[in-house]
Specification:
Length: 461
């Protein structure tokens, strides 16, 4: 790793080589180091994310999650990578959750399958140019210099992945896959890491097993997009809260913000009311689309937007959760309940000289510094599921929780112009909304928008 002076890093930068914005300065340095070695945004993002799990541990973890959006300059397209672990496959485990609830307070039963390793490897395998050994080198340097009990254990685990890559013949992609297979126990001859993880889960009373690890895969999906005043806003799917930002933007198309004035009472009111309406639909309908039929086309449609927009009363703030009925195209349905998410997150945004751009939001809500023999600490993301029978986000075997993590990419004329990642649970897309409107509606350059006053609501909590 090059000697990058982290003390000279600031919040604003201009570069023709590439840019990295993330949580810990040493994680930013890891991404910059990869860019300086000729790596692209995918390589640098993976290196940054791995390093963040050391520099920002607690806000994220190797055992946590990281949804990622990438603009691929070669293919001229945006894809969403689902770096989100799933619930246990065991129906016995699911029955226990349905009877007892999804625990908190550090209980390992709240942990999903670790997803970060496969997310980083999939990103580099599909979009990058580097080896796993190269992208993990800055993280290993941080771990070797660290002093927490799990640091040397995780270093051993990551070096086993490097070993698997080195010992595998074939293409760069095949070697990268071997590293992932070593971690998740997919190689029948190399089960050591999966054995360590399973032993840790059993020791702590968890439900995850080697079968859950082996079944894990990082899905590569089309993003959810809306056009807002000439800009294409891209979000991850309904396994995140991201599409509700798209719904809110659609509602806001009918208002003249310049006439209201930036941060005027009317402006703050109408944006807040639109967010609340969209969040109510989020909490009523969103869930893992591989398990439930989310009516997203209807939720984003002109017809539904037009029946919902009149619910925004410019003279009064709503105090209720007000989901609509996209099936019958009615503005309201009974029984709206807000289901707030959990906090504890960091950020990662990378752009390179070739026009590739990544926005990712690593997280974990780490409740315990114990990582077992593998040094893989765990988070609480299964608590983003619920135990309400029939609800689209109710826990099921192998289901992804509907998480708050929600990176954003914005295109203009098909080219990336903004990449945003925000920490803070349900505040994430509220802060993003402020930034987008400051930029699009009020013409603020990013360095002004990011320091301008912002507002948010905790109504839904």
């Amino acid at each position: 790793m090059q000697d990058i002076n982290v003390q000279q890093m600031g919040w604003k930068a201009v570069s023709k080589t590439g840019v990295v914005a993330a949580g810990g300065a040493k994680a930013v340095a890891a991404g910059i180091d990869i860019l300086s070695q000729g790596g692209n945004a995918a390589d640098a993002a993976a290196a940054t994310i791995l390093a963040l799990n050391v520099t920002d541990h607690g806000a994220c973890s190797i055992g946590g999650e990281v949804p990622l959006l990438i603009f691929d300059a070669k293919r001229q397209e945006v894809k969403a990578l689902s770096g989100q672990g799933r619930a246990p496959l065991s129906q016995t485990a699911i029955d226990w959750y349905m009877k007892n609830g999804i625990p908190g307070q550090g209980d390992i039963k709240m942990a999903p399958v670790p997803s970060v390793v496969d997310l980083c490897i999939t990103t580099v395998k599909r979009y990058g140019t580097k080896t796993f050994e190269e992208i993990v080198a800055p993280t290993l340097a941080l771990l070797d210099a660290g002093n927490e009990e799990w640091h040397p254990r995780l270093a051993v685990t990551l070096r086993k992945l490097v070993e698997a890559e080195q010992m595998t013949s074939g293409s760069r992609e095949e070697k990268l896959q071997a590293a992932s297979d070593r971690f998740y126990g997919r190689n029948p001859f190399r089960q050591d890491i999966a054995d360590d993880l399973e032993a840790f889960y059993i020791e702590k009373g968890g439900f995850l097993r080697k079968a859950d690890l082996a079944a894990h895969v990082t899905l590569v999906e089309d993003p959810v997009t809306v056009n807002y005043r000439g800009y294409t806003v891209c979000k991850c799917g309904t396994w995140t809260q991201g599409p509700y930002l798209c719904q809110a933007l659609r509602l806001l198309e009918g208002f003249d913000f310049k006439a209201m004035g930036h941060l005027s009472a009317d402006y703050v009111h109408v944006v807040t009311e639109a967010l609340k309406l969209a969040m109510a639909d989020r909490d009523a309908y969103y869930g893992d689309p591989n398990f439930v039929d989310v009516p997203l086309p209807a939720l984003l449609s002109d017809a539904y937007t037009q029946v919902r927009r009149p619910l925004i009363d410019m003279q009064k703030a709503s105090h209720e959760a007000r989901p609509g009925d996209p099936y019958q195209m009615k503005p309201l349905k009974e029984g709206g309940v807000f289901r707030p998410g959990t906090g504890g997150t960091t950020t990662c945004v990378v752009a390179d000289r070739w026009g590739n751009v990544v926005a990712a939001t690593p997280s974990a809500n780490v409740a315990s510094r114990e990582g077992g023999r593998a040094g893989v600490t765990y988070g609480n993301r299964l608590r983003s599921l619920n135990t309400t029978p029939g609800h689209p986000n109710c826990i099921q075997p192998g289901k992804r929780p509907r998480i708050t993590l929600t990176p954003t990419l914005v295109l203009k004329n098909g080219k990336p112009i903004l990449a945003i990642s925000v920490a803070g649970g349900d505040l994430q897309d509220q802060a993003t909304m402020n930034l987008l409107l400051d930029f699009i509606q009020f013409g603020m350059p990013p360095e002004v928008a990011v320091t301008a006053p912002r507002f948010a609501t905790a109504h839904h909590q």
